[in-house]
Design brief:
The chain has helices at residues 2-27, 32-42, 101-115; strands at residues 51-57, 61-66, 75-81, 89-98, 119-121, 127-132, 143-150, 160-170, 173-182. It is of the alpha+beta class and 189 residues long. It has a 9-stranded antiparallel sheet, with helices on one face. The chain is globular, with a radius of gyration of 20 Å. The model is unreliable at 4-28 (pLDDT under 50).
């Protein structure tokens, strides 16, 4: 009888644990990679389909909320720059903002790992992958940046990348950002 009671208790514990994990996973909504793919696909629309209300405006740029967020982000915005030469926009997510340097570094590395090799299926049913190298921080610098390029044959994505940054913004404040944007390779002229 005692063995049966223990077995029933164990089964109940396992059942509740599995349900709690299931609820925790589904309560956060779409995964990081699913939303990264959605944002990346909307780059071809200059992020207009995921643009929400305007936050700020000045003569150099307009800033809008993004309706698509990355799991774990504090907030996500779209920057529209006022330039005659380049009318593309930049999508940015803040993954961490705080005083804990170890936590910032952990989130930076984790964000890089999530982006690296993330698959995106574009309109041409092309299966593209982000590829890059995680740059390690240098203690002599106040920032580090890792760039992941999308290996797409689509001309729209020729210079598109996901850039993950770890910044010391001063007075022991740390920030981890992810930027999705057009960015030419530093070796290009």
């Amino acid at each position: 009888m005692r063995k049966i009671n223990l077995m029933v208790l164990a089964l109940l514990f396992i059942t509740f644990s599995l349900n709690a994990q299931f609820i925790k996973k589904t309560a956060t909504g779409p995964s990081f990679t699913d939303n990264l793919a959605l944002i990346t696909k909307d780059f071809q629309n200059n992020f207009y389909q995921i643009q929400a209300g305007q936050i700020e405006s000045n003569e150099d740029m307009d800033v809008y909320n993004s309706s698509v967020l990355l799991a774990g982000s504090a907030h996500c915005v779209i920057y529209r720059f006022s330039s005659k030469n380049d009318t593309s926009a930049c999508w940015q997510g803040i993954m961490y903002n705080g005083e804990n340097a170890k936590e910032a570094l952990k989130i930076y590395k984790n964000t890089c790992k999530l982006v690296d090799k993330c698959r995106v299926i574009l309109n041409s049913n092309e299966n593209s992958i982000f590829k890059g190298k995680i740059e390690e921080p240098d203690t002599n610098l106040r920032f580090v940046s890792s760039i992941f390029r999308l290996n797409s044959k689509d001309a729209i994505y020729e210079h598109f990348c996901a850039e993950v940054e770890l910044l010391n913004t001063g007075f022991e404040q740390w920030e981890v950002r992810i930027n999705l944007q057009n960015k030419r390779d530093d070796t290009e002229k």
